[in-house]
Specification:
The protein is α+β, with helices and mostly antiparallel strands. It is 30% helix and 22% strand. The strands form 2 sheets. It has a 4-stranded antiparallel sheet with strand order 3-4-5-6. It has a two-stranded antiparallel sheet with strand order 1-2. The radius of gyration is 37 Å and the shape is flat.
């Protein structure tokens, strides 16, 4: 093989024989006999395509960043996207600038607005109260009923709850007649709202559902009813009375419950310490 005068390997190939042949190299830029590559006047089509592709990707990235960093309106659109076909739209709770409540009635929030949001806030808070350990203790239960239920329903609800949470029922939970756990034990009952749904709002009445999870049971080394988690939906019928939403009736049904996570179960002492260290919420939504 002889190297061309310009130092390129695209020159002639001379066989050891007396005859001479020229071999065409695979480069299409040379002439018929491969006498050399033509000089390139500019960028190749491949390089040009690459540069154009990079520019397009850069423009798309800038547009996406501007969209993501936009106003809260774009986020609201995503949060309020329609739910499954035939179901209600899923709406997240967003700050409105309006104070949720005017005050408290004991430990329970009060002064809810006569709006859809106000009704949902009331329902969430009442679900927490009705699922607390206070409902099991006669002294605190009577006070709670007066705070949560409409005046016309207070007497009837109180009688039904007294019959439901009888001494026999409390004994099955490991509690005495006053709803207290044995010495060295801690009874836990906490309800945590996961979401609310306004089924119907009509003037002074509102029908709502609150999807909840909760902790229930007695923490202690000798407990026969250990603390477990639960998923349930609380149905509440509210009525506007004395300038606030009050409960007319409520019921509970199981689920919907997700698949249990692969969590390591904590000991009774850890659960007891957690309950003492982490106070429950007095206001939801």
């Amino acid at each position: 093989m002889s190297i061309g005068d310009d130092g390129d390997y695209s020159g002639d190939y001379r066989s050891p024989d007396a005859g001479q042949t020229r071999t065409r190299l695979p480069d299409g830029d040379g002439d018929t006999y491969g006498s050399g590559r033509r000089p390139r006047a500019g960028l190749s089509s491949r390089n040009l395509v690459t540069i154009v592709g990079v520019v397009v990707l850069l423009i798309a990235a800038i547009a996406f960043a501007n969209r993501s960093g936009g106003t809260s309106g774009s986020q609201d659109t995503a949060d309020n996207a329609p739910g499954p076909v035939g179901g209600p739209a899923a709406r997240s709770t967003a700050p409105t600038g309006t104070k949720p409540v005017d005050g408290k009635n004991g430990t329970i929030a009060s002064g809810f607005a006569k709006t859809a949001q106000g009704a949902q806030s009331a329902a969430a808070n009442y679900a927490v109260a009705l699922g607390s350990a206070d409902i099991l203790k006669p002294a605190t239960r009577h006070t709670l009923v007066k705070q949560v239920f409409s005046p016309a329903k207070t007497a009837g609800v109180q009688s039904k709850l007294d019959a439901t949470y009888s001494a026999g029922f409390l004994k099955k939970l490991g509690l005495d007649a006053n709803g207290n756990a044995a010495k060295g034990m801690t009874y836990i009952s906490r309800t945590v709202p996961v979401g609310t749904k306004l089924v119907k709002l009509n003037g002074d009445t509102a029908n709502l559902e609150v999807w909840c999870t909760g902790l229930f049971g007695t923490a202690g080394a000798k407990s026969t009813t250990p603390v477990t988690t639960d998923w349930f939906t609380t149905h509440l019928q509210l009525k506007w009375a004395d300038g606030d939403w009050k409960v007319e009736s409520f019921s509970r049904q199981d689920g919907p419950a997700p698949v249990n996570g692969d969590n390591k179960t904590s000991g009774a002492d850890q659960i007891t310490d957690a309950v003492k260290q982490y106070g429950g919420f007095t206001y939801a939504r």
